[in-house]
């Protein structure tokens, strides 16, 4: 028997991982080796770099893995899912603003919001279908209603919301038609659409909040460490972000005299988003780390600056059209950064075995594995 | 069929899925202490299930060039070189000894056990494990599938119907073990874009046959059978190994009270699960789903209330 080569514990993380059709690429750092020296004392030490952690303090983690490779697989989703998180939020918030504008007699705000609603929805459906492995089978979603699948629930939420948003938009278009057309041979149809606008817009507004909120469950209901661990606060981050982005769009497109409610909504949404995001990072523990690193870290920092600046602009610059436009654009950009940042952080957390192994190992070492307790033995 | 333990806790998965009188739950007991890393399971699986080629690449990590479970690799033999005495540790029950296990006399004529001087013995040991889909009692992939493509069979296993899957990829992100994946290639292969994984050879089971990998395993490292019987056998095996002083032996996935309700394919390991690339304490993500929907509901209502408040007292 011959001696094994000296470099038998090979750190793969610096090597090229198998190419695209076999396994997602891996993003471990070179310092992370396949070893957790503390327990066995017989393997390379897995040392963790401290980088850009900011205000989140996490203890150094040593852990073992299979040659530094990922344990869970990252979602095989492209950036169109991150973009969908944004456009879906804009659509949902816009539908609510449109209903409010309609009820309070703000036609300019209503028009912008209805265009935002249908535009957001159209882009969303496009992104969703494009991301399927078999786009031609999109309708297979309609085979079942499955409460355990947030994607199924979301599909049905969109199916319920979409037609009413579409009807409200059609009514808006009907109202925009030149007078000769409105009175011409299509007059009965135009009149019908106009009358349906308000009720359809109301239903569209009332069915909109789940469109904004379910996407948080969509991400959290996975084994992706930085998405699942965010499940308490992520719905509030996403709903706040949706409110800020849709109100931002309304501020961009609406004269300041009619945009008052949009400014209020923008400030409220931005504050909820910023506060919920802060609380979320605290409750995520180690899994908040990817929110501070790499591309996700840059996006989340940009998101905070843009959202805060947009909110301040909406608060103090409401009388100025120029400030409103810039603030609204900043709020939309901030929301976009939030969605992409959360998306990227989740993907990064799945590619690094640390975020899967360390929390699980720690609860095992504490003697607190996740085990079922019958209802009569709970709390003891 | 929503029962009390449908999302978490011990349950008979086939009965919970609605089968009236299902056959006994079927699964694998993979005993890594007798795996010799021959990869016969990988080959048999590919041959029977017509799984296309995986990307072959010299990773430089031990002898493992099939590198992971994925859409094109439904059995994967992990090779781990661990520092420590060859053959694992030996000692009396209840104590951890660093002595190498003595070479075994195989009964070969005129040969006897080989005599190897201590200094020629390797100062590391091999761990080999044939990994596979765990066929969880609470299968996150199945729970989150929006098309119903993933379903629970009468044998309690989890199978993808590839003519229904639309490739949304949700199951990929949901699996706590990183097993299921969307097929990306090679060009011309069937079912590209579709989620693929071990079916526990559903087509063989319905004909009363053993899965291909278990059939091909030369050392009975992969044992197929009724899960109840396999769990009993696994308990005996781990007790026997402890009796021999191999105190590193432990079972993984056999506990119906664990985070995924126990797995239909479970393992005897000789080191911590993460050494093999397995999550040490996996939990099905849908355990928390009621809470997630609850929080999302509150956030949605808050968003609606916020919109209403924004318009209050501001009639234009």
Give a quick set of tags describing it:
heterodimer, A: 380 residues, mainly alpha, Formate dehydrogenase/DMSO reductase fold, 13 helices, 62% helix, B: 316 residues, alpha+beta, Alpha-Beta Plaits, 2 domains, four-stranded mixed sheet, two-stranded antiparallel sheet, 8 helices, elongated
Structure description:
The complex is a heterodimer of chains A (380) and B (316). Chain A is mostly helical and 380 residues long. Helices cover 62% and strands 0% of the residues of chain A. Chain A contains 13 helices and no strands. Chain B folds into two domains: 234 residues, Alpha-Beta Plaits (2-Layer Sandwich), CATH 3.30.70; 30 residues. Chain B is built from eight helices and twelve strands. In chain B, the strands form five sheets. A four-stranded mixed beta sheet of chain B has the order 10-1-12-11. A two-stranded antiparallel sheet of chain B has the order 2-5. The longest helix of chain B has 23 residues. Chains A and B meet through helix 2, helix 4, helix 7, helix 9 and helix 10 of A and strand 2, helix 3, helix 4, strand 8 and helix 8 of B.
- Top-tier CATH class of chain A: Mainly Alpha
In CATH, the architecture of chain A is Up-down Bundle
Summarize the helix and strand pattern of chain A as letters: HHHHHHHHHHHHH
**Distance, first to last CA of chain B:** 52 Å
CATH topology of chain A: Formate dehydrogenase/DMSO reductase fold
The SS-based structural class of chain B is alpha+beta
Helix content of chain A: 55-70%
Quaternary structure of the protein: heterodimer
Q: What's the number of extended β-strand segments of chain B?
A: 12
Q: Which runs of chain A of at least 5 residues are low in confidence (pLDDT < 50)?
A: 1-56
Low-confidence stretches of chain B: 89-99
Q: What's the CATH architecture name of the largest domain in chain B?
A: 2-Layer Sandwich
Overall geometry of chain B comes to elongated
Given helix and strand content, the structural type of chain A is mainly alpha
- First and last CA, distance of chain A: 55 Å
Membrane topology (chain A): Multi-pass membrane protein
InterPro entries (chain A): Electron_transfer_protein (IPR052049), NrfD-like (IPR005614)
Protein name (chain A): Polysulfide reductase
Subcellular location (chain A): Cell membrane
């Amino acid at each position: 028997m011959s001696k094994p080569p000296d470099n038998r514990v090979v750190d793969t993380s610096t090597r090229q991982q198998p190419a695209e059709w076999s396994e997602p690429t891996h993003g471990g750092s070179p310092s992370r080796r396949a070893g957790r020296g503390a327990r066995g004392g017989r393997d390379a030490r897995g040392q963790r770099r401290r980088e850009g952690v900011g205000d989140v303090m996490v203890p150094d983690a040593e852990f073992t893995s299979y040659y530094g490779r990922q344990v869970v697989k990252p979602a095989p989703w492209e950036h169109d899912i991150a973009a969908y998180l944004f456009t879906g939020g804009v659509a949902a918030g816009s539908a609510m603003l449109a209903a409010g504008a309609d009820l309070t007699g703000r036609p300019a705000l209503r028009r912008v919001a209805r265009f935002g609603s249908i535009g957001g929805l159209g882009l969303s459906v496009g992104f969703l279908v494009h991301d399927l492995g078999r786009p031609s089978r999109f309708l297979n979603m309609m085979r079942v209603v499955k409460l355990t699948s947030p994607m199924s629930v979301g599909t049905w939420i969109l199916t319920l919301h979409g037609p009413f948003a579409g009807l409200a938009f059609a009514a808006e278009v009907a109202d925009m038609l030149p007078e000769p057309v409105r009175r011409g041979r299509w007059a009965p149809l135009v009149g019908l659409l106009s009358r349906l606008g308000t009720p359809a817009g109301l239903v569209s507004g009332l069915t909109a909040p789940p469109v904004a909120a379910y996407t948080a469950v969509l991400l959290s209901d996975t084994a992706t460490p930085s998405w699942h661990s965010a499940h308490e606060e992520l719905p509030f981050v996403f709903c706040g972000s949706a409110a800020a982005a849709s109100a931002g769009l309304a501020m961009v497109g609406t004269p300041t005299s009619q945009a008052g409610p949009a400014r209020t909504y923008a400030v409220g949404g931005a504050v909820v988003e910023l506060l919920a995001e802060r609380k979320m990072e605290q409750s995520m523990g180690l899994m908040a780390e990817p929110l501070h690193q790499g591309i996700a870290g840059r996006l989340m920092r940009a998101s905070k600056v843009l959202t805060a600046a947009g909110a301040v602009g909406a608060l103090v610059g409401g009388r100025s059209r120029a400030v409103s436009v810039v603030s609204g654009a900043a709020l939309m950009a901030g929301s976009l950064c939030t969605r992409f940042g959360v998306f990227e952080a989740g993907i990064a957390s799945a590619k690094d075995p640390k975020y899967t192994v360390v929390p699980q190992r720690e609860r095992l070492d504490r003697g607190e594995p996740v085990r079922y307790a019958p209802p009569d033995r709970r709390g003891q | 069929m929503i029962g009390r333990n449908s999302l978490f806790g011990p349950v008979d998965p086939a009965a919970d899925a609605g089968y009236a009188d299902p056959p006994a739950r079927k699964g694998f007991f993979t005993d890594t202490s007798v795996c010799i890393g021959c990869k016969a399971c990988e080959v048999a699986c590919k041959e029977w299930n017509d799984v296309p080629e995986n990307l072959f690449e010299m990773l430089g990590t031990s002898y493992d060039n099939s590198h992971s479970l994925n859409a094109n690799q439904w059995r994967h033999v992990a090779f781990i070189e661990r520092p420590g005495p060859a053959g694992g540790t030996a000692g009396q029950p209840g104590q951890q000894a660093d002595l190498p296990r003595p070479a075994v006399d195989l009964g070969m004529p005129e040969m006897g056990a080989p005599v190897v001087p201590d200094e020629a013995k390797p100062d590391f040991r091999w761990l080999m494990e044939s990994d596979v889909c765990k066929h969880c009692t609470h299968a996150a992939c199945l729970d989150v599938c929006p098309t119903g493509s993933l379903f629970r069979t009468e044998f309690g296993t989890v199978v993808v119907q590839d003519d229904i899957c639309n490739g949304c990829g949700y199951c990929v992100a949901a699996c706590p073990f990183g097993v299921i994946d969307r097929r990306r290639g090679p060009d011309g292969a069937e079912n590209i874009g579709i989620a693929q994984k071990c079916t526990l050879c559903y087509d063989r089971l319905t004909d009363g046959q053993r899965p291909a990998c278990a059939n091909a395993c030369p050392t009975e490292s992969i044992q197929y059978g009724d899960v109840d019987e396999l769990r009993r056998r696994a308990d005996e095996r781990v007790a026997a190994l402890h009796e021999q002083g191999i105190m590193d032996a432990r079972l993984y996935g056999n506990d119906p009270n664990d985070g995924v309700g126990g797995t239909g394919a479970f393992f005897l390991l000789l080191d911590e699960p993460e050494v093999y690339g397995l999550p040490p304490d996996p939990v099905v993500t849908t355990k928390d789903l009621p809470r997630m929907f609850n929080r999302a509901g509150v956030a949605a209502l808050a968003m609606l209330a916020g919109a209403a408040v924004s318009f209050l007292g501001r009639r234009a």
